[in-house]
Amino acid sequence: MDSDSTDVRSAQPGIGAFRPDPRPLAPGLYFVSTPIGAARDITLRGLDILAKADVLAAEDTRTLKHLMEIHGVALGDRHVFAYHDHNGDAMRPKLLRALAEGKSVAYASEAGTPLVADPGFQLGRAAIAEDLPVLAAPGASAVLAALTVSGLPSDRFMFVGFAPAQAGARARMLAELKDTPATLVFYESPKRIHRILSELRDAWGEAREAAVCRELTKRFEEISRGTLGSLAADFEDRAVKGEIVLLVGRAVAEAPDEASVEDRLRQALAEKSVKDAAAEVALEMGLARRDLYQMALRLAKEDE
Length: 304
Hints:
Elements: E1 28-32, H1 44-52, E2 55-58, H2 61-70, E3 80-82, H3 88-100, E4 104-108, H4 121-129, E5 134-137, H5 142-150, E6 157-162, H6 167-177, E7 183-188, H7 193-204, E8 209-214, E9 222-227, H8 228-234, E10 244-248, H9 258-269, H10 274-285, H11 289-302
Parallel strand pairs: 1-4, 1-5, 2-3, 2-4, 6-7
Antiparallel strand pairs: 7-10, 8-9, 8-10
Helix pairs in contact: 3-4, 7-8, 9-10, 9-11, 10-11
Pfam families: RsmI_C (PF23016), TP_methylase (PF00590)
InterPro entries: 4pyrrol_Mease (IPR000878), 4pyrrol_Methylase_sf (IPR035996), 4pyrrole_Mease_sub1 (IPR014777), 4pyrrole_Mease_sub2 (IPR014776), rRNA_ssu_MeTfrase_I (IPR008189), RsmI_HTH (IPR053910)
Keywords: Cytoplasm, Methyltransferase, rRNA processing, S-adenosyl-L-methionine, Transferase
């Protein structure tokens, strides 16, 4: 395994000597994105913030300390405070007090971008309520990495997170999301990936495109693309490990019949030019603008 795919949780120190930006870090709360696998995916700005922040907080203190050690970022006499869902009520006032005193506070989730299925929302919201600066150091995100490699449309997507554990709640969620005109992004446990694939297949049909992205950026990264039917069959008897992002393609509406399209075009042509009417109906009905323009030209001539 080369150094570019070094897992942050198993890497040895010494990837490189980091030299922080000499400029001081302005006061504020910095949400720092950290690698989801490959240790080198941390950004230089993220390292700058970790090197210079007055206060460090993390979902998992050991993971953050190890990441800093890998990149040669000195902890010095600073303490890394644990901040997660279980101690947020107690820890949040301490971090807000530091911010109110004009200090810089860096917060990192265990992996990826804070607040995306990770802690941080209440902290950010509380800081904003007190008119304190909140900034982001963008970087690794399992959602965006999965969208990039899935082969599914990324112009419109919806992050769903983990499906509910209760069968009834899952069924209601799938019913609500079925016709969403966007790529849907789920997080799922390897122990439950077959269950959710089977339920999606049964609820949404076998033909819908999907992708299972496992262990993104890590040594055993695996991308499985296909339909809900084929993927449910592929994972039925598989024992898989690692972190999983499941993506399901958007709902595709049935193409309207030609008579309905012509009726709608005639309505639009009564108020608009051929070009504008075709553009409006094409967008409204999800059809090719060129085809609608030709149809609009024909209808305009027929109605002369």
